[in-house]
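Good morning,

Attaching, inline, the backbone tokens for the sequence recovery test we're adding to the shared suite. The designed sequence is right after.
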């Protein structure tokens, strides 16, 4: 029959101490990560936002010479899930992307104006801009050479004879906190323009701390989590030391209180004896 050596109490206590230290460190690290993540998602706004632009116009013309009675107009909502897309105090770059065919009508159109107006919830005017744009010029020879070169792609539908224009509507737009923008109205001031599709893009222009958090996310996360972990660790150590000191000093304070009580009783008896002698 073999002899089984019992575990030494020191080894058991070391295992328990190591497990306790590991649990505390894991808890503090999880709390530090949670605090940084909460701060990041509450402080950082959405970097980009895009929405399709669908134009409409009136066709009930009194004159038979023109089919379109108004300029193409589009309403874009700046709300998502009942929340504002734009963050107060944050600068944004707002641009419009136009996909236009290289048709004779667009070539003859030349320059055209794009007017953008932002409105608040109650219909108040918040901001407006007017920008011009036009198709890139290409000579007849260049267009013919391009058509001959990409003829198989044109025939199979892989590519099309079109141009994509990007028009900057606002270069540094900041939303008003007292009258936030709810909708944006885009109007193209030409009834002859031809458009395949259109898209509105909003890009946040980060500066300061938001710039570091967005463009250096790994370094920012390491610094933020480390700072939170150090702060929580120091707070935990001080709290633990205070608890230990309170437990160690409590018996001595009780003993000191008993000594003081005995000394007070002895003093009272001595004074009484002196009074009787007198």
């Amino acid at each position: 029959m073999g002899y089984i050596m019992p575990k030494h109490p020191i080894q058991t206590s070391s295992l328990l101490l190591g497990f306790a230290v590991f649990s505390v460190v894991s808890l503090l690290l999880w709390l530090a990560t949670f605090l940084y993540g909460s701060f990041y998602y509450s402080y950082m706004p959405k970097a980009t936002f895009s929405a399709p632009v669908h134009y409409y116009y009136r066709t009930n013309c009194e004159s038979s010479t023109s089919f379109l009675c108004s300029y193409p107009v589009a309403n874009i909502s700046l709300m998502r899930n009942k929340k504002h897309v734009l963050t107060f105090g944050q600068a944004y770059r707002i641009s419009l992307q136009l996909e236009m065919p290289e048709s004779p009508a667009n070539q003859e159109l030349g320059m055209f104006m794009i007017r953008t107006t932002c409105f608040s919830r109650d219909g108040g005017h918040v901001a407006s801009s007017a920008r011009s744009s036009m198709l890139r010029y290409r000579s007849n020879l260049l267009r013919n050479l391009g058509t001959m070169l990409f003829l198989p792609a044109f025939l199979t539908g892989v590519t099309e004879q079109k141009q994509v224009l990007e028009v900057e509507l606002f270069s540094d737009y900041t939303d008003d906190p007292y009258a936030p923008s709810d909708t944006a109205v885009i109007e193209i001031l030409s009834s002859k323009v031809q458009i395949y599709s259109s898209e509105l893009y909003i890009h946040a222009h980060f500066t300061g701390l938001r710039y570091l958090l967005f463009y250096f996310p790994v370094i920012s996360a390491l610094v933020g989590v480390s700072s939170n972990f150090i702060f929580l660790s120091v707070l935990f150590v001080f709290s633990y030391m205070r608890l230990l000191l309170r437990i160690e000093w409590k018996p001595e304070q009780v003993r000191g209180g008993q000594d003081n009580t005995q000394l007070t009783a002895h003093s009272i008896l001595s004074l009484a004896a002196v009074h009787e002698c007198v």
